[in-house]
Amino acid sequence: MKHRPGSNKAAEKSLVILISGRGSNMRALLEADLPCRVAAVISNKADAPGLEVARQHGIATRVVAHRDYPDRESFDAALAATIDACQPDIVALAGFMRILTPRFVEHYHGRLVNIHPSLLPAYGGLDTHARAIKDGVKIHGCTVHFVTADLDHGPIIIQAAVPVLWRDTPATLAERVLRQEHRIYPQAVRWLCMDSLVLDGEGKVYLNRVEQPGFALVAPALE
User: Fold this and answer.
1) Using H for helix, E for strand and C for coil, what is the string for the chain?
2) What is the pLDDT of residues 97-116, one digit of tens each?
3) Can you list the domains of the chain with their CATH numbers?
4) Does the predicted TM-score (pTM) go above 0.90?
């Protein structure tokens, strides 16, 4: 992404990215040349490698260390204050490993998005790839969704599916899914930047000006 400090484009939206680690999905967003301005990258860990990546892209960084606060509520209040100082239109969780309080989530309703390594609503939570292999599923993937108080069950924006191969380990499957994460997260944020998404009152997401393909992914392949 081309950082655009001080842009005068009135319609350009502002994005804040939250990370806890290396920030590979953050990197994918930064390198996607999205039609928005990245106001800051914020981490709950001062030693998160992704902070240096953000600095190399000319992005301002902030740290709100969760260990400095006695409980989730006080941490979330401090985090929200730091985010709000950037006046973002969109807040993207990119490997941000903290469960957020309902009050925090409601504050950013319709603006807070996350990438999850499964085809939600299946396999919410952790260890998604190992669980998918254990269950013998043949198709796995990743999901970008709006964040709600119901963990990993917010309105779905976009998903990508990959086959689960018989020799897969959690690591090999994770690598295949991650490549798709890096494709669909920038797309979801691009739609948000361009006001191409509609989140209706029933919690469903509709896309403007997007034709949906009709082909199916079948795994194992038909003969």
Assistant:
1) CCCCCCCCCCCCEEEEEEECCCCHHHHHHHCCCCCEEEEEEEECCCCCHHHHHHHHCCCCEEECCHHHCCCHHHHHHHHHHHHHCCCCCEEEECCCCCCCCHHHHHHCCCCEEEEECCCCCCCCCCCHHHHHHHHCCCEEEEEEEECCCCCCCCCEEEEEEEECCCCCCHHHHHHHHHHHHHHHHHHHHHHHHCCCEEECCCCCEEECCCCCCCCCCCCCCCC
2) 999 999 999 999 999 999 99
3) 13-207 (3.40.50.170)
4) yes
